[in-house]
Structure formats: structure tokens, C-alpha cells
Amino acid sequence: MAELTIGEVARRAGLRPSALRYYESVGLLDAPRRRQTRRYYDPGVLQQLAVIAVAQQAGFTVAEIGVLLHGFGPAVTPSARWQALAAAKLPEVEALIARAQAMKRVLEEGLNCGCVRFEECVIVAGQGCVAGPTGSPPAAGAGGDRATP
Amino acid sequence: MAELTIGEVARRAGLRPSALRYYESVGLLDAPRRRQTRRYYDPGVLQQLAVIAVAQQAGFTVAEIGVLLHGFGPAVTPSARWQALAAAKLPEVEALIARAQAMKRVLEEGLNCGCVRFEECVIVAGQGCVAGPTGSPPAAGAGGDRATP
DNA sequence: GTACAACTTAAAGTACACTTGAAGTCAAGA
DNA sequence: TCTTGACTTCAAGTGTACTTTAAGTTGTAC
Fold first, then answer.
1. Å between B35 CA and C15 C1'?
2. A130, CA 20 to 30 Å: which among A70, A77, A111, B27?
3. Which protein residue lies nearest to nucleotide C19, measured between its Cα and the C1' atom?
4. Which tens digits make up the pLDDT trace of B79-122?
5. Low-confidence ranges of chain B (pLDDT < 50)
6. Is the pLDDT reported for residue A104 higher than 70?
7. Is the pLDDT at A123 greater than 50, yes or no?
8. Statement: the pTM of the whole predicted model exceeds 0.70
């Protein structure tokens, strides 16, 4: 059983066949050999898909995974590519964590807020709620201006 | 200066005029009065936009913000609506934080990894890297099967 | 030989929050 | 009056990672 159909690969990898065709079309996966029109894969493709899965779990986009797998030319090792990309991605992920934690704080303040109308609630001004049982001042950043579009 | 043009409101709120028209079209913003075809806003719209901004920072979608502002009928106070929605949203945000922290761990393991080829690196198998200076075992969850699509 | 499942392609669809473009209207200053 | 900039509507486009659909082909079991 050295050959796998696309359905078999998809089932083992927990993907849909359409995802495998998509990965092939964007260059993440090498084109497998064919008989007539059908694709037949070596079992090693499952390892490649595992690499892709880990990269996705790390937050890389499909385009970035393409660079990870094939970018920078053959002189650069995969490990070096991963490290270069990971070093660039880490601040993004840290920013995501900070944003999500800020969301959580806003939600928790809202849960503890006793204001009846939004307008009387100073959460809106970025200074925490005045009427609720929580009086803890939130993180810095005066309200009013959002990120420039 | 009791009236603001759409450009003026947009500038003060840090948005584009198109965003205000979009908010109006999906019901987040009341339709302002018009002279001829042009929109003229009361300054109070800035407070409404601030509420929308806070809700967005809390992770609510535009549809959810619509419920927040107008949903459940008039018998329910805005505060009660916020609390109902925030209680439902909090687990989502906590899951987002957990996912992002998992991403960060994967990236950091990769940065400390000394493997030359992906295939020799056991990060792929979900057990951390064997060759690198870090020997810390990662979180649970055996590799192989991803979330069902 | 026939039925049926699994495969093939290309194009379009999905979700979200807007933005962009085209073509036209309006207000204000010189 | 003319110009210029800001506005109007409506439709289509953006980015991401795929999925879905349609229409046709192939492999396998009976």
C-alpha cells in the first residue's frame, strides 16, 4: 500500500480532498504523480501535511508557509527559514494575545457594570465603569481615537 | 456648530465616511437628517460611535453590536443586553487567548530548535523538538488528527 | 455490462467589515 | 460663473482559506 488516493490522504490528515487540491494549487504541496487524471500520493505526504498543520497552528498564513517550505532558495535550511519567520511572527502573536486580553478586560468590566444607559457609563470614555462594583482603572490609552484606517 | 458633515464625523471618530454609511446601512447608526441628499449629524453621534468602538474592542461583531444597541425589544435595558452578550462572548475570547498562547509556544519551540530538516523534528509529531536546547514537553494533544472540517 | 462511488476541472461562493470605483450632484469660495 | 472639493448612490472588490457546485470521467464491485 505505497499509494494513497486523495480521499485516503484527506481522511488520514483530517482534511477534505478540496483542501489538498487547494494546497497543491498554491504550491504548498508538490503535484503527485497521476494515472489518467487521478492523483496518487506517497505516504510521505502525510508528514508534509503535518508540517503544514504545525505551521498553521503557529499562526502562519498559507503564503508564509509557502516561504517556509520553499522560500529563500536551497542554500538556506528549513530550520533557518523557520527561525527567521518565527522571529518575525512572534511579535504579531504577542500583539494578538495582548488584544485578546484587552477584550477580556472590557467584557469583564461590562459584566460588573451597573449603568443603565451606555452614555452614563464611563467605560465608553476608556476609564472603567463608575456605577458598577468594580472600581479598578483599566489599562492606559485615552479613549476617542482609534487606529487610523 | 451643532451640525457635522459625514467627513467631519469620520475625522473625529478616526473612521472613513464609507464606514459611517456602512454602519447606517446595517442599522448600527440611526439615519441622520438630510438637506438635499447630504447627511448632517448631531454631535451625539460621536458618543454612539464610541460605544460601537468599545464593543468592537471587546470582540463583538457588527451583527452582535446591532443586538447590543437595539435587540431584545425596549423592555430590556442596554446594560442587561451588554451583560447577556458579554457572558456569551467571554468564553470565545478566552478560547482565542488560549489559541494564541499555544501559537506562541509553537513559535518559541521552533526558535530554540536545532533540527535541520522538518522531518527529523519531533515538533511535527506534537512532542517538542529533540535536537534543540529546549527539552520541555509541550501541551497535551497527540499529533495526527486536526479538528474535523 | 451496469451501477455507483470516487475522482476530475473551473468557476463561483462563503464570512466579515468595510473600501473602491463610477458617474453624478451639491456647496462654497474666487 | 467657474472651479474645486466634498458629497451622493449602487455595485463590485478586498483578503483569507478554503468549500461548493456543475458537469463530466474513471475505477471497482457485482
1. 36
2. B27
3. B18
4. 788 888 888 888 888 988 888 898 888 888 888 877 777 766 75
5. 134-149
6. yes
7. yes
8. yes
pLDDT > 70? residue A74 = no
Q: For residue A4, which phi and psi values (nearest 5 degrees)?
A: -125, 140
User: What are the residues whose beta carbons fall under 8 Å from the beta carbon of B109, sequence distance 6 or more?
Assistant: B123, B128, B129, B132, B134, B138
Show residues of chain B in contact with A138, CB under 8 Å: none
Please provide residue A35's backbone torsions phi and psi, each rounded to the nearest 5 degrees.
-120, 125
C-alpha cell at B59: 470582540
**Ramachandran class of A72: left when φ > 0, alpha when ψ lies in -120 to 50, beta otherwise:** left
| Alpha helix positions (H), B14-149 | 17-25, 45-57, 62-70, 78-111
A-chain CB neighbours of B129 within 8 Å are none
> Who touches strand D, with Cβ under 7 Å?
A 15-16, 18-19, 21-23, 35-38, 56, 61-63; B 5-8, 17, 21, 37-39, 149
